[in-house]
Amino acid sequence: EEVIAVVRGFQPACVLLAAADLNVFTILKTKPMSAKAAADKLKADTRAITILLDALVAMALLTKQNKEYSLSSEVAQLLTEDSSRSILPAIRHQANCLRRWVQLPQVIRKGQPAERILNIHSETEDLAAFIGAMDNFSTPAATDVIRKLGTLNFCHLLDVGGASGTWTIEFLRAVPGAKATLFDLPEVIPMAKEHIAKAGLTDQVEFVEGDFYTDDLPTGADFIWLSAIAHQNSRQQNQQLFLKLYTVLENGGKLVLR
């Protein structure tokens, strides 16, 4: 029974991931809805959405009364798009991860990364979910991590693979007089600019497009931050990347890995 329970563990996860991908929680935030109304709103099959909604009720993520479904304020804060505490990007990113995890036998046999499989979202939306997930994961930890680094004294930060700028923002708040360069792929930079602008730090940040595997890195930094990258690389890839980082780091500067 324990083994079967492990194997069936994907089922509740898939229910939650489907609801997140379909944006079920966001449409129910404003008012309770019947299954038919939700299906019409989501352009979904009524019978199928009824089964999904009832499963969410069983998981205590929704409530059902008089054939209408609603969600609590606590769930709304975590799983709706316009909430400042939303972890919806992280949930949607896990849905993308799941589509790759199911390919594990092929990955092990071939020794190659899993094929990217789109679900109901575009590749751009999947990328946005990934970048948003990195912010979801990093924001709660950033202040404490930076505090544990001790007294920081740098003039120019280089945030390699800086994503939406979560760490750039926190480092600049810790060292208000510093400047920063955020380096990431061209399709990521617009998301970073938006996030940095909301933090009011645009004047302190230069945005540079590029791929740290193939492109030269920006120069002039005396503090380089490399977060959530080294773990995905082979030993050879990391050796090559660290050499590139060392080459552009100012004399006496520091490279910090997370």
UniProtKB/TrEMBL annotation:
Q: Name one GO biological process term.
A: methylation
Q: Give every O-methyltransferase dimerisation domain span.
A: 10-80
Question: Any idea where the O-methyltransferase C-terminal domain is?
Answer: 124-257
GO terms (molecular function) for this protein are: O-methyltransferase activity; protein dimerization activity
Q: What keywords appear on the UniProt entry?
A: Methyltransferase, S-adenosyl-L-methionine, Transferase
Pfam families attached here?
Dimerisation, Methyltransf_2
* InterPro entries on file: COMT-like, COMT_C, COMT_dimerisation, SAM-dependent_MTases_sf, WH-like_DNA-bd_sf, WH_DNA-bd_sf
Q: What protein name is recorded for this chain?
A: O-methyltransferase domain-containing protein
